[in-house]
Design a protein that fits this description.
Elements: H1 2-16, H2 22-26, E1 35-36, H3 39-45, E2 51-55, H4 61-64, E3 75-79, E4 98-102, E5 121-125, E6 144-148, E7 168-172, E8 191-195, E9 214-218, E10 237-239, E11 260-262, H5 270-279, E12 284-286
Parallel strand pairs: 1-2, 2-3, 3-4, 4-5, 5-6, 6-7, 7-8, 8-9, 9-10, 10-11, 11-12
Length: 287
């Protein structure tokens, strides 16, 4: 019981903040390396600058377009910088493993993604981007992709399925294809979060999601969950808050690792809730 409670606490903590956290950035780049927060200082040092966090900094255009000179750079975070384009020659930063931008009105992805084959974490929030290019498939080592808060329709390319190492995917506050088929073909996926994405139907092919541990589809229009959900046998955490569900399939009882289920904000009658409690005796159910 203690182990199960500890697992639940860990999952809840990870779920609490699906967007960027400082702790995530610290996982990338050489351990213990200095995080530069002043661009001029980083440019003056040049060699040996591995991490650059320019959050809430006013950046001169001249200095901004010199970032490509930091050849050792592995971590780059931009946030609320009033920039509308990427630094010039960004594709020279071939050692980047982490790239994130928040609250900058970028209108596209970087023009050339092919050089970023070391990139493992990519997050773009509060941008003006309305499509994800097919060339995202070049990011062959990408493990985490987070995107959202565009208040626009976002086109997801079919090439998304070629991101074979992708483990964590977050889309929030943007309009996706109402049936995001390619997301359910990522066999390496462990964490899938869709919130306010116009999702009203999900694939029945849960047998493809053999590694999936966390499934969060919230603030959407789901009316049914496929019977085949039981085939994602590693599922531990499911949140389906604020949809239009009236019941869940009985097959959910076969998810032996499930520790937490949130179905609050749906249309599920009390008798169905009571049945879920019987089907999932070791699972915490929120309704």
């Amino acid at each position: 019981m203690f182990t199960r409670c500890l697992l639940l606490l860990t999952l809840l903590m990870s779920f609490a903040d699906v967007s960027f956290s400082q702790k995530e950035m610290e996982q990338y780049g050489p351990y213990g390396s200095k995080v530069f927060t002043v661009l001029q200082e980083a440019l003056e040092k040049g060699k040996g600058v591995y991490k650059l966090d320019l959050s809430y900094k006013t950046i001169s255009p001249k200095e901004y377009d010199k970032i490509h000179q930091l050849k050792d750079l592995q971590v780059l975070k931009l946030s609320t910088n009033s920039v509308q384009h990427y630094p010039k020659q960004l594709d020279q930063l071939v050692n980047l493993t982490f790239l994130a931008s928040y609250n900058n009105k970028l209108s596209t992805f970087p023009e050339n993604l092919k050089p970023f084959q070391n990139l493992q974490y990519l997050e773009l929030q509060h941008t003006g981007i309305d499509s994800i290019p097919s060339t995202i498939a070049y990011l062959s080592r990408l493990k985490t992709f987070k995107f959202g808060n565009t208040d626009d329709t976002v086109k997801l390319p079919s090439s998304f399925i070629y991101l074979k190492k992708l483990q964590d995917v977050v889309f929030e506050n943007c309009v996706l294809d109402s049936f995001p088929r390619s997301l359910f073909q990522l066999s390496s996926l462990k964490f899938l979060y869709l919130s306010n994405t116009n999702t009203w139907r999900v694939s029945r092919h849960f047998e493809r999601l053999t590694e999936l541990e966390v499934l969060i589809i919230e603030n959407n229009h789901l009316q049914a969950i496929p019977f085949d959900i039981y085939k994602a046998q590693k599922l531990r955490f499911i949140s389906l808050r604020n949809n239009k569900l009236e019941r869940l399939p009985d097959s959910i009882s076969q998810l032996s690792e499930l520790a937490f289920l949130d179905v609050s904000g749906n249309r599920i009658p009390q008798e169905e809730i009571e049945k879920l409690k019987i089907l999932l005796p070791g699972c915490q159910i929120k309704f």
